[in-house]
Amino acid sequence: MEKRVVFGHKTLPYLLLAPQLIITIVFFFLPAGQAMWQSLRLEDAFGLSSEFVGLANFMDLFRQQDYLDSFKTTAVFSVLVAFVGLSVSLLLAVMADRVLKGASVYKTLLIWPYAVAPAVVGVLWLFLFSPAVGILAVALRNIGVDWNPRLNGNQAMILVLIAAVWKQISYNFLFFLAGLQSIPRSLIEAAAIDGASPIRRFWTIVFPLLSPTTFFLLVVNVIYAFFDTFAVIDTTTQGGPGTSTSILVYKVYRDGFVGLDLGSSAAQSVILMFIVVILTVVQFRYIDRKVQY
User: Fold this and answer.
1) Tens digits of per-residue pLDDT, 11-63?
2) DSSP helix/strand/coil, 169
3) Is residue 50 within a helix (H) or strand (E), and if so which, with residue range?
């Protein structure tokens, strides 16, 4: 029989929902509405005067080559962050699920990076890969790699990619490990008795049963790459060299808070919001159909 909660008072459900609704309205709907309104206006740097210009800010954006380049940079960066982060996290979770001695210590060490602030993560990896004194940079130079992310755009992208993935690995690891531990051992043991190799057991039993977790983490990691990597990029490359690591969210900051082009920055934030909404809808609409619950 289906169990349903019955509230004795008609206003009680609304009172229980009120805190979350207030937070959503204040911190999402109001700023989003303000950004949409501001994207339709041309304002001076001090906000003392503004003029309604309609869609002119949006049209100007798509005539700028650096903004179009930021689309490509964001697409490459988000795909790499999601793919590399999920792959490494799944590998670590599989290893942790099989470790017997020192398992708790091993798992704790893998969880720690998630507690580090994104800005600290950026500074940490910037120091490790510093061309002058970085331990990893010196090691690369000793094997013949001319490492200098301040001058090489591809190396700068590798630097922010490593920092962003390292920060998110712990989050992905926790969910993958929980998913692995929820899989009935009897299924894996039955496949082993039938002669299935470990790799075949993983791809035919374990990974399909992990598909709900993988789908959830895919959505989370794409949104993370679009928004939460701002501090990592700001503390490592500041979008450089040139605009090689300037993703969309960082360009919003540079144009709005550094360049003081408030209308263009607001238009970029609106476009970014719609891109994330569309990606999320597509993922739930089409990718979710292939998930086995």
Assistant:
1) 888 888 899 999 999 988 898 888 888 888 887 777 677 788 888 888 988 88
2) helix
3) strand 50-52
Residue with tokens 């398992």: 103
Asked if the model's pLDDT at residue 2 lies above 60, the reply is no
227, 280 in Cβ contact below 8 A?
A: no
Q: For 42, list phi and psi in degrees, rounded to 5.
A: -110, 115
Q: What backbone phi and psi angles, to 5 degrees, belong to 183? A: -75, 130
Single-letter amino acid, residue 17:
L
Structure-derived torsion over alpha carbons of residues 56, 58, 60, 61, reported in degrees to the nearest 10: 170
Q: Residue 182: its pLDDT value, please?
A: 87
pLDDT for 153-205, tens place per residue?
999 999 999 999 999 999 999 999 888 888 888 888 888 888 888 888 888 88
Please give the model's pTM, rounded to 2 decimal places: 0.84
One-letter amino acid for residue 63 of the chain: R
Query: How far is the CA of 139 from the CAs of 8, 122, 150, 152, in angstroms?
Result: 69, 20, 17, 18
Q: Is 118 helix (H, G, I), strand (E, B) or coil?
A: helix
**What contacts 24+ positions apart, CB below 8 Å, involve 106-114?**
107/177, 110/169, 110/170, 110/173, 111/170, 111/173, 111/174, 112/170, 113/166, 113/167, 113/169, 113/170, 114/167, 114/168, 114/170, 114/171, 114/174
Is residue 280's pLDDT more than 80? no
Query: Residue 277: which residues within 8 A CB-CB, separation 6 or more?
Result: none
3-state DSSP assignment of residue 284: helix
Cα torsion through 199, 158, 226, 180, rounded to 10: 20
Write the DSSP symbol of residue 47.
Answer: S
